[in-house]
Structures are given as C-alpha cells and as structure tokens.
Amino acid sequence: MRRNLEPLELDMGVQIPYYFRCPISLELMRDPVTVSTGQTYDRASIESWVATGNTTCPVTRAPLSDFTLIPNHTLRRLIQDWCVANRSFGIERIPTPKQPADPALVRSLLNQASSGSNNLNSRVSALRRLRGLARDSEKNRALILSNNVCEILLSIAFSASDSVDLNHEALAVLALFPLSEAQCVFVASDSDRVTYLVSLLSHSSIDVRVNSAAVIEMAVAGTRSPELRSQVSNADGVYEGIIGILNYPLAYPRALKIGVKALFALCLVKQHRHRAVTTGAVEALVDRLADFEKCDAERALATVELLCRIPSGCAAFSGHALTVPLLVKIILKISDRATEYAAGALLSLCSASDQAQREAVAAGVLTQLLLLVQSDCTDRAKRKAQMLLKLLRDSWPEDSIANSDDFACSDVVPF
Q1: Is 29:21 a contact under the CB 8 Å cutoff?
Q2: Fewest beta carbons less than 10 Å away: which of 208, 290, 304, 395?
Q3: Tell me, which fold does domain 2-89 have in CATH?
Q4: pLDDT tens digits, 139-159
Q5: Distance in angstroms (rounded) separating the CA atoms of residues 110 and 127
Q6: What are the pLDDT digits (tens) for 28-56?
Q7: Whether pTM exceeds 0.85
Q8: Ramachandran angles phi, psi of 42, nearest 5°
Q9: Any idea where the domains of the chain sit in the sequence?
Q10: Taken in order 154, 160, 161, 164, is the CA torsion positive or negative?
C-alpha cells in the first residue's frame, strides 16, 4: 500500500502528489468527493465502487454509513492550481465539474412547471432550469427521467390552455429525452398533435423547429405501427419542414443531426419516399454530405440508399452532378456502415443508368471497389461491391482490367 502513496511520475517528467491521486484509480482526481468516513476519492471511481455492490470505504474498510458524496472544493482548487503551475509540462487544467442535480430540486422544478396555479414566468423558469440540468450530464438526465418527466412535458407541450412560450419550452426539454413506445403512440396517433408539430417546423426560431423535428423523429422511429408511422410521414408539410432544417444556412450542428435523423425515419416509410424526393431531399443530402459528422453521415448515406430504391429518387440522384463522384470518394472513408450504404447507392444508380456507370468509372470506383473487397468491412458491403464490379466490367478501361488480376476476389462472400 505504501507504494501507491509515492508520487506518480508522468511521461512528461512531472510527478503527481499522492494526495491529488484517487486511492482507487491512482489517477489525478478531476472531481474529488468525500465520503462518510472522511476519505476523498474521485467521483467516478467511488461511484463505480458503490455501483458494483461495495458498502465499505475502499481505504479504511469501514462501513459507509450513507452514500452521500460531498464535493471537496478545496482539494479540487489545489489540484487546478497545481495543473496551472505545471502547464509547461503539458498538463491541462482540469475543468470545474458541474455538480449532479439534487433529486429534491428536480421534483420541485417539475411540480413548479406542471402546476397551473403558478404564474407563467415561474413555470417557464422551472422548465429552463430543468433543461440546463439535463444538458449538464447523462446522470442528470437519468435522474430527471426517473421522475416521470416525459408524461409531464407531453401534457404541457400539447396543452392548448397553456401559453405558446410554455408549450415551446416544454418541447425543448422533451427533445432531450427518449420517449417510450406508448408516448410515441400518444403523439403519432393524434392528427392534431402531429399537425401542431409540423406547423412548428416553419417557426421563426430554428431552435423551435429543431425541437419539433426531434419529437417527430422519436414519434416515427419509436412506434411499431406501420399505420401510425405512415400517418406522420404523410402529414402535409413534414418533408418540407425537415428539409428546410437541413438547408439552414448558418452553421448549426444540431440542426444537421436532428434533420438527418428525422429525414431517415420518415424515409423508412416506403410509400411516401417519393415526397422526400419532390421536396428537395436529394439536393439537401448531396449538398450537405461533407458537413455531417460520422454517425450523421452514416444516416445520410442510409437515406441516400433508401431513396435510390425508388425510380424518382434514383433519377434525381443521377441528375445531380456531384452524387456519383461524392459516393465514390467517401466509400471507404467513414465507417463500415457508411461503406455499405454508399456501395448500395452506387449499385442502384449504376444499375439504372449507363451515364452513372461512366461517371463512377471516371471517378475511380474500380480501385475503391477492389480495395473494398479486400478489406475487413461487412459481408453485405462486399456482396454489393462484387455485384457492382460485375455490373461495371464492360465499362472498365483495358489497363484496369489487366491490373484487376492482381486482386484476389475469390474470398468475397457469394451472393
């Protein structure tokens, strides 16, 4: 045990004082908290210790009389000062942690927000404080969610008797939490609620628009009823509103993230995909493809593949000059899933159009596909790549055909 109390030497040649180190992890404490025995630990470490069923103090082995964790602000400030003093060694100052929400405060805010006897400003203020707490940490969101928050928020968000500001603030908080299937059905099964959400997609505030899109996406994705999903995706103006969010001219990552999630969910309903095409989904997806982060790019490419499965979508993507070159360029650059979707989209486009085949070959698709079938990507991606290679064989330049013999394709999964 004595060895653990010796200063820990970092790679950059500076030592961490032992009293700055968590006795459990032996790492520099970022959020020191004191337990009932008087010992101090890093919050993440002691919470993990307790979560695995331990009821004693790791250092003293004494029983923990309660599991209250008291922030050790003095020690945390000393650690921060030490980090600043040693910044020349490449040590970054630890940020001041945000404290977990107090359960009593959460209950009080929910009561304040849901009580019709309170004045409007008080109710809106309570919802804004809840939103701030929810944004602070996953732990806070779990705590708030355990207090039946979504039921309360749904009743406020769709209440015609409450003010518009209160409706919008409730929707903003609701967008931060997952909805149960029953709650998704509550939204999707009522045409008035769906119409209300769609109307907000053209609101002057981009935040209101994005929050509404988030709830629409959850309602569509969270219900297993094909009829209800179709009802939402067939609502007048829903595609126009979602695509408008994707086309928002200013840099707003959340708009892109929620917009592509909602568009993908809507496009899973096959019978209404043509509406996405006629309202500009093709242009929005191609023009924004380079702006998406990894997970969002996967969804965007999955949506492209879905729309390429209908004739109007395939024709629209073929008619966009950037579609094929972009798909070829990114086919191996994002993730295995993205590779699979891009290959599937290219297969659909090239199956429907000789022009797309020529564009793909000119963009270097042959090399990409030969690399793909030799890679560790998914079997489905390899099957799509193999089918595309066969489809394009007559379009290959002579020197490319000769060079392709260097690649062993026999290990590709048969289709």
Answers
A1: yes
A2: 290
A3: Herpes Virus-1 (3.30.40)
A4: 899 999 999 999 999 999 999
A5: 8
A6: 999 999 999 999 999 999 989 998 889 99
A7: no
A8: -75, 140
A9: 2-89, 101-177
A10: positive
